[in-house]
Description:
Chain A has 538 residues and is an alpha+beta fold. Helix content of chain A is 28%, strand content 19%.
Amino acid sequence: MAVAGLLVAGGMLPMASHSSTHAAHLSGPVKGGTMIDGLYEEPDRLIPNTSSMTYALNVDTSLFSPLFYTDNKGVLFAGLAASIPTVANGGISKDLMTYTFKLRPGLLWSDGQPLDARDVDYSWKTWVNKDLNANTNVGLAQIKSSTVSADNLSITFHLSSPSISFVADWTDQYFPMPAHILSSMTAKQLNTAKFTFQPTVDSGPFIIQSRKAGDNITEVPNPHYYQPGKPYLSKLIFRIIPDQVAITNALSAHEIDASWFLDVSQASTLEHISGYTYVNGLAPNIEQGLLNLKNPILQDVRVRQALEYGLNRQAMATDVWHGAIPLASDEMPSLFSFDPSIKPYPYDPAKAGQLLDAAGWKMGSDGRRHKNGKTLSLRYSTTARNNWRAQDELIALTDYQQLGIDLRIVNYPSDTYFGSILPGGNYDIGEFENNAYYDPDISIYNAFDSSQVPPHGSNWGWYVNPTYDKLITQEEGTADQAQRKVIFSKMQQIMHDQLPSLWYYDPPNIYEYRNTLHNYMPGPYSGECWNTQDWYIS
Amino acid sequence: MGTYIARRLLQAIPLLLVISIALFGLLHLIPGGPEQVAFNPRMSEQARHDMVVSLGLDQPLPIQYVKWLWGTVHFDFGNTFKDGQPVITTIGDRLPNSIELLGISFLVALLVAIPLGIIAAVKQYSIIDYLFTVLSYTGISMPVFWFAEMLVLFLSIQHNWFPTGDMQTEGQPSSFIDSVHHLVLPVLVLSFAFIASWSRYLRSSMLEVLHQDYLRTARAKGLRRIRVVLKHAFRNALIPLVTVVALDLSSIFGGAVITETIFSWPGLGRLFFDSLESRDYPVLMAMMVLSAFSVVICNIIADIIYGFLDPRIRYS
């Protein structure tokens, strides 16, 4: 969206048609070598858009090529696509309702079969099939129809409403799947097919050589990768290390070359590992406590505001993250849509108590608040075995206990949490990190548009606000970025006042890599493995 | 003997049935059943319904149990909720890893605990006995995770003698030496706790036997002390140890969660823990029933060994 929007507005973001070099080593890339990447969680499904796990998406990115992708600076590139569609090049209609994606000629799957627009067509139709356990259908739900050109090199999408973010929707996700392999299966069969967990044909820089449950995923170069001469590594191994301390140990013992999404509580050790570079950089992410508005208690905005006022988020930043991170208002500061005039709520437990009193939740002699014979009790959930979130929970538990709220903590493994608990609404406060996409519209639409309430999408808080929906429609149909920013500011104010989610802080991206590993540079939108084809060891 | 084993196995059937009913019931009492944690709410109603039907979750609990039992007696534990793969395959992928880790740990523990227990008993109240006692209580009382972390810190990170985890060096051709190298630390952690406890059991039973009249008689007959200890005392002192070892041995289907997590060992312990967190009932039920079954089998084996150790025990 921003892509198209900026282009329509005159082109403000840098773009390139093809990724060639990023931070190149002085002596140039070296072919060969094995790189071992430590994964904290074991990915589940490995065909595109069938897993909600971040680690699955990371591994996916090394196996499948996107049509469009962003680099570590957030710059947009064409991947399998021959170019980035714009109004100027005819790829986008002026009414923002028709998009044409042109693919590079001569693309091949790893088995040597042609990869073309028919695969793109098959993929989106499969992802919107309700029988498939798909991760998301953002952007796809707007597709009314699609047409593949006679030469099979381009596909035209006709949308049901104007959408400025349609290219961004496809960016860094929605990697085309091999129709010649999968079309013989029904969507239901795909959910449990062996191929889904261990794809044997792909389009990315690597193909899976072996997968050992609970241990590792070993990949070797794809002989038909579309970027000539790449990847540089002769082997890429994802080693499953299900414990953050064990990851730190493996880095300290120089057993692995890199790891991403590291635990801040290990920072004092990670910073001092010789021969490695520790990176703790600001990232366009928000740690939040999503509120389940199906729960009648949380439907009262005064209760939601009390929860925000009554939670010492500064303590989370100071004690858990050592004070180096900003508190969140409700939008990621690095995005153009961010309005700095909207400030985070202050920590004010007295005000929180007053709001709860006003909402009818009176403090009882048992130290708990009650209303109409009911105790103010909430279930707080997040991903299990995550140290910093456990500490956040401890702060929430202490603060809310003092406010008279009975907080019950139930955590789940991340695949269960993101795959079932949040989408199923089986929580009251759900803590997780919301990552930005290339266009701010995507995460906003995904999380808070009423059309995305489950089972249709990822509005896991069941937030329904017609005014907000109308503003989303407006910004989606607006090509001019300045106008969009005004609309986004209004939306940000609604998020701030209505609090469908508790806004915590902007967590940094923490990763570490061996100094002899080059071009390892996780991206803000594209994750850890967006450029595995460029990684090399000197 | 054959009749005895057959009778014990037959007796185990109602026991296993009762255990499986209890486990099945308890598992379904855990808050957040499979409907809450194992299904993607984005699925269509029809797909969801089909999956519920295919998993038999639309049936009343007793019917679900009977269906599960029927499958189990045919070695069909169903499919996992997580990825739809056969449970038997999922467990089968991890079982060899657990057998390797726990089996070698048991072996090492036995080889060390037996001499330690005997020496401590024979040299009662000596410096060696006190030293072994201190070491044993250290082993029993020391948290596994702390001991494991200390070993990793000193032997892996500071001295680089052993890898911090995993079953083999990634990216290298697998070799016997490399596998042994990776086994040292986790085996040390697991066997240390077993050595500590088993050597105490053996010491105590040896002490009891060493004071028996028949040993005094043996010594009075002029037999060498080592022969008296090893042939007459040790054999009779083994019965309590066999009982404890048999019970510990049955834990192989439960894996070793903490050790496997710290050393990134892809065994059954981690599988059980992950399945518990994600309420993957078919995997949990299979693992718990296999554990119960292994307890029964190990106890029968222990009973048979009793007969070899003490000829007075008759299987009638």
